[in-house]
């Protein structure tokens, strides 16, 4: 993938973010409190981060819950306030930022990041566990 990419991890208390260049090298990173007012407030936070991040060419958001990856809708987010059931997260974020966006479960994002950039880089198979 070419261009600058913004990765965002929405957690129950903190939202962490990273900015990557075309090679996957980290340009910047940070953390901010997670808004408790629901998905629209989280989209505004991500849009703010994107605006401050040299206008990324793609945005990826990891959330702690169930996601319909085909539609980009969140289904159930247990530890972030607001009504997330059926919220069209990807669609709304892409419209708000005019940038291609995706949403994924945070565990899957962790595994994908390790395969692409971390300890499992270069491997064809890996098993991930939190315990």
Task: Tell me what the structure shows.
This protein has helices spanning 39-52, 89-97, 106-116, and strands at residues 5-10, 14-20, 26-33, 58-63, 66-68, 73-76, 101-105. The chain is of the alpha/beta class. The protein has one domain (5-104): 2-Layer Sandwich (Nucleotidyltransferase, domain 5). The strands form 2 sheets. Strands 3-2-1-4-7 form a 5-stranded mixed sheet. Helix 1 (39-52) packs parallel to helix 2. The protein is globular, with a radius of gyration of 14 Å. The mean pLDDT is 93.
Order of helices and strands: EEEHEEEHEH
Global geometry:
globular
Uncertain runs: none
Total of helices: 3
Q: Under the CATH scheme, which class? A: Alpha Beta
Question: What's the N-to-C terminus distance?
Answer: 32 Å
Rg calculated over all Cα atoms: 14 Å
**Percentage of residues assigned to helices:** 25-40%
Strand order of the largest sheet: 3-2-1-4-7
Any idea what the CATH superfamily is called?
A: ATPase, nucleotide binding domain
β-sheet strand percentage: 25-35%
The description of the largest β-sheet is: 5 strands, mixed
The average pLDDT value, as a whole number, equals 93
Helix/strand/pairing category = alpha/beta
**From the coordinates shown, what is the CATH architecture?**
2-Layer Sandwich
**CATH fold description:** Nucleotidyltransferase, domain 5
């Amino acid at each position: 993938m070419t261009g600058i990419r913004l990765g965002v991890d929405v957690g129950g208390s903190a939202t962490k973010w990273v900015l990557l260049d075309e090679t996957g090298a980290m340009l910047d990173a940070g953390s901010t409190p997670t808004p408790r007012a629901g998905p629209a407030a989280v989209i505004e936070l991500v849009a703010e981060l994107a605006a401050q991040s040299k206008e990324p060419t793609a945005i990826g958001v990891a959330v702690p819950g169930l996601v319909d990856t085909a539609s980009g809708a969140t289904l159930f987010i247990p530890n972030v306030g607001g009504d997330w059931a059926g919220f069209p997260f990807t669609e709304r974020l892409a419209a708000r930022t005019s940038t291609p966006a995706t949403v994924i479960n945070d565990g899957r994002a962790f595994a994908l990041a390790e395969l692409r950039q971390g300890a499992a880089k270069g491997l064809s198979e890996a098993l991930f566990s939190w315990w």
